[in-house]
Amino acid sequence: MAMARIVQSLRKVGVGVFLAVLCAVMAARQPEFLSVDNIKDVLVQISGIAIAAVGMTLVILTAGIDLSVGSVLALSGCAGSLVGLRCAELGPAWMGVSAGFAAAVAVGALCGLLNGLMVTKIPLTPFIATLGVMGVARGLAYYISHSSPVQVTPGMRAIALARPLGVPFPIILMLAIYVLGWLALRHTRFGRNVYAIGGNEESARLSGIRIHTTKILVYTLTGAFAAVSGLIVAGRLAWMMPQEGDGFELDVIAAVVIGGTSLAGGQGNVLGTLLGALIMGVVRNGLNLAAVDYNVQKVVIGGIIIAAVSVDVLARRLGRIGKR
Hints:
By secondary structure, the protein is mainly α. It has helices at 2-29, 36-61, 69-90, 93-121, 126-145, 154-161, 169-187, 189-199, 201-206, 211-237, 248-258, 270-289, 294-323; strands at residues 150-151, 239-240. It has a domain at 47-245. A two-stranded antiparallel sheet has the order 1-2. Helix 2 runs antiparallel to helix 10 (211-237), helix 3 (69-90) packs across helix 10 (211-237) and helix 11 (248-258) crosses helix 12 (270-289).
């Protein structure tokens, strides 16, 4: 047990140290990297991935996976934009914004609910269930948008581009969601249940935890967070395209794994996920400033993901050795 605790502590510290070293290297090579404007740009750029990654953290903590978040982002964004435009035509601007937001989150939550029901009630493995929803959601996004970009309402775009006290709204929203996620995992029965299920599902069941209810809620929240990410993306771009979010799920999973959450479940936290998203954002921003080819950037990110998963596997092996 002592070995397991030591390994987990080293992983938590290691993510923060790696991010600090990475920032120092980027700043040494590109002095403008540490400018206030560039830091804000990095945080805005990762906001969509980071918000969706809160939900993915919950899923992976229960030893699950959700491959549908990219398609759910596109479907929710298209649905919210279409509803927002129609309501804005019929009433004041605030009606378009509120209706669009509600529609997007409802669609995302319904997709997540479907994932949760299939995982718990049929049951299907999370990989198969969410892979199916990924295809359905992507097809529906193309269908309702007629395979064309959907314009967002001026109100939704204004919110996405707002800067209260000089801080971009996506950053404020991202940090607020992370605070709520941290509080939920650390100080609520729901959070304790999530960790218990991922640690040992059978033991959690025997202790009276409602496994199905918790998992359904986890997947529903993940869909809702993907929808919020979709609204942020749509607002920043002024359009939501049905092909938006292609490969998004890989970036979201990468942020969670790089942040130290174990794919085996039961170990990790949202703070680590935020650091993981920051690492990805810093790497991409630094490579962009250095004018590195986009395809090379994908190779670098892929290498970081492989390293993070390898560390996870090694940590679990050392943890098992420590328990003997």
